Amino acid sequence: MSDGRPVPTPALRSARWYGKDDRDGFIHRSWMKSDGYPDDLFAGRPMIGICSSASDLTPCNSHLDDLAEHVERGVWEAGGVPLVFPAMSLGETQMLPTAMLFRNLMSMAVEESIRGNPIDGVVLLGGCDKNTPAQLMGAASVDLPTIVLSGGPKLDGWYQGRAIGSGTDVWRLSEAMRAGDITREEFLAAESGMSRSKGFCNTMGTASTMACLVEAMGVTLPRNGDLPAADSRRAVLAHLTGRRIVEMVREDVRLSRVLGPAAFANAVRACAAIGGSTNAVVHLLAIAGRLGVDFTLDDWDRLGRGVPLLVDLMPAGRFLMEEFSRSGGMPAVLRELDDLIDGSAPTVSGRPLRDEYAAAMRHGDEVIRQRSAPLTPDAGLAVLRGNLAPDGAVIKPAAASAHLLRHEGRAVVFESIEDFKTRIDDPALEVDADSVLVLKGCGPRGYPGMPEVGNMPLPRRLLERGVTDMVRISDARMSGTAYGTVVLHVAPEAAIGGPLALVRSGDRIVLDVEGRELRLDVTDDELRRRRAAWSPPEPEYHRGYARLYIDHVLQADRGADLDFLVGAGGSEVRRESH
Ligand code: FES
Asked: pTM to 2 decimals?
């Protein structure tokens, strides 16, 4: 909002298309008039793109068309012209081999769709895991006035009188089905009970994490992180978002003005406090890379230290997003964190972040804890280094077993996820509870696309003996709905010859989370011999986008963006031909 002084309205970018009385102007206007637009809509009214990732193939986003209509109402009301456009959609539960492979492709589609069209400001309408980062990455490379609006989480899942969380309870129920503990009918009933409404996963998985973090970064209006998809207040939020983006165009509040270093620092701390997904690491690094913000993997460790876990949500905790919303949502969390975050950080509302949460109420003490009674006093992610991960690896100590945070064990190595699936329950596999499961070939380039398989299931025979956690190490990611003592994002990855490629079954591995170390206890001479005998695996793809991805993807410590997408191209398009 303005402070009362008149704000000089910048020249509209869309005037480049619509402000000319020549052949080009005729063409740009006339074809739009086929939709029934009168002349005056092209005379100085902000054109607002609504970048929607609605798709029947992305069930978490299937309601976004409805939400877009509410954004449109707000845009019209504020004097703008809403223009809904698609830019790919990534359904986490549907896309193979993994939706992450296509995050960068979607970011390209978003970037080029915004830049190439007569758009003055943009609302990014997303939800399911990869859509929010993909849209923000693309928009960041153009840098127009931008607001994110998330689709919101599903209502809490219920089955046989108990809350069940998207993803988190899938493993338990599928194991129960395999063991014959529940019938097929019960299994199907649980599926239905888990997904009671439209919206994204109702746990603090990656989608909820990203929806909350973009709120903490100031790039949404308040309550974006928590209001359920089915809550009419989500529609109100959409309406207000439509109004505000028009004002932002008039005030020329570009994305880069909101997403500075303070926004990223606030996001890291907020992520610790909500027990957010490790996937946020690669996504925020990639977004920062587009904006040229100096934000590195080590900042995740440095900034997250000493931040308490305040939110008791699955996968690690007890409750689901509907309860989180009832308890006050992100504004309540941010208010508890007040002295740990930069409340002066700018937001899309035009007010500093502190103004957005200063009056927030926390309802009850269970779902969102008081600062003085946290679930864990130190919930930040840890970045490990050592000869096994020279460029870093990530672990979420708050989701790990305390007794494994310092551990030495014998490596049991799997060369690929298929190798893992084939052998993990082989009675001949030499494995015990102290072993360290090592998975290769699941990094950005190796898989390709860095799938969420890092939380490898434990060997059945150990599960039957009551073992509930083991140290697991890989170059993969982990679902935001999973947990365990899982070391992820090892860089460099095995497929490009990182030290992970050289680990053999029987090697000793030392994990020391307190000391931030991940060490392979093998001599340098032996590692040199192994390296000399190592050859890179044959790429999985030889054509198309996947080939482009393999050739250009950066490692996890750089956010797994494509090397030629880092940075911004701006919004200018110099040439035009009809
Ligand atoms: Fe879409 Fe979880 S599968 S948010």
From this structure: 0.96
